[in-house]
Amino acid sequence: MLSVLGGMFLSFSWPSIGHFSFIFFGFIPLLILEDIISKSSIKKKGLVVFGYSFITFLVFNVISTYWIYHATIFGAIMAFLINSLLMSLVFLIFSKSKNILGFRLGYFSFIIFWISMEYLHLNWDLAWPWLIIGNVFANTPNFIQWYEYTGILGGSILVLMINVLLFTYWKHRNFKNLMFSSGIILSCYVISYFLNDNNIIDNKEEGFEVVIVQPNIDPYLDKFSLNYKEQMDIFLNLAKDKVTQKTKLLVGPETALQERIWESEIDSTYSIKRLKSFQKKFPNLSILIGASTYRVFHKNENISSTARKFRDNSGFYDIYNSAIFLSNTNQVKIYHKTKLVPGAEQIPFPYLFNSISAFSVDLGGISGSLGKSNYINTFSTDGYNITPLICYESVFGEMSSFYQSNLLCVITNDGWWKNTAGYKQHFAYSRLRAIEQRKHVVRSANTGISAVVSPFGKVIEKTVWAKKESIVQNIILNNNITFYHEYGDYIGRLSSFVGAILLLLMLVRSKLSPTLH
């Protein structure tokens, strides 16, 4: 009952599922259970702690991210199991550390090991940062304006600290810990109040005019039944209703261009010609839009590990999930997505699992690993810089920090998850990126939610689910550089370093005191 209760607290704190306040109690049932087990006389305590924590985290993963199964059942099962196992392993190590290092250092290690695990989830082949605890406040920007200094890992530390303090209050009836917890939460609101500037939201009269198109192409039906010319017509018809001579940027969603685009011949493709023809009527207009692009490797080039062979064995080519930028100076630039979805766009640890590529989701006739760039691109034109974030990339805070830009643009297709909490959570995470970077976020989603978000996480305007729509907004660009932009996920790096020291200390003490287990 305690295991399931903990999982329910965590699940129903998540954006678009419940209320964030439940997160402050989410780990307490499991901490109580671990405390009971550690004092009991049962055998194999570690295995018991691992088993009960696995129940908690499996409940958490299934309820909060159930919607993954719409895109890939295999991927959903793997995400549930691997993430639950990883979280349970962290909790097991914490239980061991408390036994070896003592009460205070043990609970400190719980916070350190958990943050280290979340940092791992931002950087390895099985990266799945969706359930990083700091994401839980995505829809409560008035509480987290300090994310411009800490990023989401700062939110994780806050939650874990409050859980530990409230647990110790329950255990020792220490009223000071209860007051301290309340004071920390109140301080977050006070700090956020002073950091929040509600006056810098948008300006209807002047600024940078952007038009966002939501074509609402069903990814399971229309995307592959309508040909690429028909889909282009839908996009341009929605765009022309809002684009004016003042418009600086037109944004379309991920893989909106369904034509097979070879990068070496990009200027001669039907889609690019149509977009350039549309551009000619509006001299200030630049266009950012998503596509699947193909690149041929020449004989003397290094061939990527994800390259495919032509059927006639004449050479190699690679496929990318790309953002194409058509500047108002008639230049065409391409950015390749760098953070690929495990199991859907890339096979993790390919030397081990490449044989299971048939199980990955079919994103338009493409299975197996897509290619990716080893660099982050910023599109520049006419005095402004844009950082494109393609779908999954918008969940990674540090992705927005590699280059200095005026504007963050998220292009995505959340229709794969259908009308569930998934697309709402993904949208909410864009609010976190706005606060971390203090930049407007312009978001174009194929089926919703498309929106403009202020640098303080406020939603200025948004579309609804499953509606063909376009919106226009004037926004103010800025060149602010936040502390988080400068130093990125420094909390994760520091925690990993401290965590390694704690593990070493555990090893030394266990060797010196072999009776500890």
How many whole angstroms does the radius of gyration measure? Answer: 24 Å
| Count of helix runs | 15
Distance between the termini: 26 Å
Shape: globular
**Percentage beta strand:** 15-25%
Quaternary structure classification? single chain
Mean pLDDT: 91
SS elements, strand count: 14
What level of helicity do the residues show?
A: 40-55%
Structural class: alpha/beta
Order of helices and strands: HHHHHHHHEHHEEHEEEEHEEEHEEEEHH
Unreliable segments (pLDDT under 50, ≥5 consecutive)?
Answer: 357-367
Main beta sheet, described? 8 strands, mixed
Any overview of this molecule?
It is built from 15 helices and 14 strands. With 517 residues, it is α/β, with parallel strands linked by helices. Strands 1, 2, 3, 4, 5, 6, 7 and 14 form an eight-stranded mixed beta sheet that branches. Strands 8-9-10-11-12-13 form a six-stranded mixed beta sheet, covered by helices on one side. The two termini are 26 Å apart.
